[in-house]
Design a protein that fits this description.
548 residues; mainly alpha; Alpha-Beta Plaits; two-stranded antiparallel sheet; 10 strands
């Protein structure tokens, strides 16, 4: 039953990831696993200093853990399923001994948990580095998804002659756009390292490093379902050796409930059938700890006051260094374009969990992960690479799939008015300005007619009307110049609101983002530009736009 539930959970996680596309219906929460993560929700709330509606879904996991125990790690967590699958494929036949000084190693995840929570209180969100759900989602986005598209296209190429011979014209011409992401290899190596750790001991990551597991372990001992060992136990220790979390202590009748993930493996291997998991709850007045009637005493979490102080100090140190790394000066050298609807930068960095959902769902693949462009605090956050691809104006899926609303979920009209920047012409590189060549691409491709031609010294030159440009990037992506574009979008004039209407803000700033069928002359007059023509030039016959 457990394997079936685990497989179903991983399939559901994969299916929701696949459905996070342009056609995602409003009623389907494709980011539901991320919303259910209590560590992500807690750190986002602490860092942002406000309640985020979507993170309250995580209370469902907290509540069920209080009732059942730490079931999430054993049955639901897709990272746990991936680790078990990797162990089954590569090391199931190898004898793996538990680590020496395991108690010391177990404390590591609690150090990490408190360090991340203290850093969040200081306004720096760092849990995304170690939380299993963003880690796996990034792996899916940056590595697995592009690899799957590559394999599908290769299959279609091989089968194309057969499809054509059979008259299946739709399949014979089908081809899927190939997504490409920065840091794909880095993301793959991180997940490969997590899987490989199981070679040292089963579920190494879950036992010693997972901060989400540490958070759940604090409340799991209160669950009603717990391991019981009857008098038939002959202390053969098979249960201790089989337990993937090392929750069975030296005395097999005692259970470290904080580490027990309710997997029932111990009950399956017990030759005496002495182990059960009935619902029970009692309180041992002498010890002051919860206990079961026949299952032995509950072992308290071994985490001292000194350990907590070390964690708090580590968290504050991380928060201090995150904004003062050697890479921080690089922030001023890059003009980052954030997705439409992104919160103001400080709030965005505090709230974004770097899961990669927005990048996967991006219709044009313009959203890419940051490296050092925004310092350590901006690592893995989404940026728009408009030279690579523009922002599709009829798509607003990135806000739909953001579990913490670091990118606000906006209707299309609001998203259109969420100006991300302004196009700027670099005249020294422009074919028209620098070489007097005929080029109309940026003008023709602009969806809002924000690029117009004006006569300068007898030549028609392109100009950008800033009040009509919302930074979509079509001009930058389509510019025929090799290498860097002659027209680039910079964050100047961007609108980033934590709340309120983008439409009203655009109206206040006298911005207008509407397609206009009129010609350039009408646009120029509306924008305050006037053609400086001599009487002789005015009497000459009109030529098509762009010709000298």
């Amino acid at each position: 039953m457990r394997i079936f539930i685990q497989a179903s959970s991983l399939l559901l996680f994969t299916a929701l990831f696949y459905l996070a596309t342009y056609k995602l219906p409003d009623w389907l929460p494709a980011d539901v696993y991320l919303r259910l993560d209590p560590l992500l929700g807690l750190t986002a709330i602490l860092a942002g200093k406000e309640i985020i509606g979507r993170t309250l879904w995580s209370l469902m996991i907290v509540g069920t853990t209080l009732v059942i125990g730490r079931f999430f790690c054993g049955y639901v967590c897709p990272m746990g399923v991936a680790i078990d699958l990797g162990h089954h494929l590569f090391w199931r036949r190898q004898k793996i001994s538990p680590l020496k000084k395991e108690t010391i190693f177990r404390k590591t995840k609690y150090f990490l948990l408190f360090a991340f929570l203290i850093a969040a209180l200081a306004g720096i969100s760092l849990s995304y580095f170690m939380d299993p759900l963003p880690l796996l989602t990034r792996f899916y986005t940056f590595f697995l998804y592009p690899l799957a598209i590559t394999l599908i296209n290769l299959f279609l190429d091989l089968m194309r002659p057969i499809f054509h011979a059979l008259g299946w014209m739709s399949l014979s011409h089908r081809h899927y756009s190939q997504p490409v992401y920065y840091m794909a290899i880095v993301t793959f190596l991180i997940l490969a390292a997590i899987i490989t750790m199981s070679r040292l001991t089963p579920r190494f990551w879950c036992r010693y490093l997972c901060p989400l597991g540490a958070l759940l372990s604090f409340i799991s001992p209160l669950g009603l379902w717990r391991r019981r060992v009857s008098q038939e136990c002959n202390e053969c220790l098979k249960c201790q050796k089989a337990c993937p979390m090392g929750a069975v202590e030296e005395n097999p009748k005692r259970t470290h409930l904080a580490e027990c993930i309710q997997c029932r493996t111990c009950a399956e291997v017990c030759p005496q059938e002495a182990i059960t998991f009935p619902a029970s709850f009692a309180w041992n007045k002498a010890s002051g700890h919860p206990t079961s009637a026949k299952g032995g005493e509950y072992s308290a979490i071994d985490f001292s006051r000194r350990g907590f102080l070390y964690s708090a100090g580590g968290g504050l140190t991380l928060a201090f260094l995150a904004d003062r790394t050697p890479f921080t000066p690089l922030k001023g050298r890059y003009q980052l374009i954030r997705p439409p609807g992104a919160l103001p930068e400080t709030d965005f960095l505090q709230t974004c969990i770097r899961c990669g959902e927005c990048m996967k769902s991006c219709l044009t693949n313009t959203l890419q992960p940051c490296f050092w462009e925004s310092g350590l605090t901006g690592f893995w956050t989404p940026k728009m690479d408009l030279r690579f691809a523009p922002c599709e104006q009829n798509c607003n899926v990135c806000g739909k799939v953001c579990p913490t609303q670091a990118i606000r979920s906006l209707p299309l009209e609001e998203k259109t008015n969420a100006k991300v920047g302004t196009a700027v012409l670099r005249k020294e590189m422009c074919l028209v300005w620098a070489q007097d060549k005929l080029c109309l691409i940026c003008d023709e491709i602009c969806p809002y007619n924000a690029i117009v031609f004006r006569t300068v010294e007898g030549y028609r030159r392109p100009f950008v009307i800033a009040s009509r440009c919302n930074g979509c990037g079509f001009c930058e992506q389509k510019c025929p110049i090799q290498g860097d574009s002659a027209i680039i979008v910079v964050p100047s004039g961007e609108i980033r609101l934590k709340e309120g209407s983008y439409i009203k803000e655009a109206q206040k700033l006298q911005l207008e983002f509407k397609p206009d069928p009129g010609d350039d002359k009408f646009m120029l007059e509306e924008s305050g530009f006037k053609e400086n023509l001599s009487p002789a030039e005015k009497t000459q016959p009109k030529k098509p736009k762009g010709f000298l």
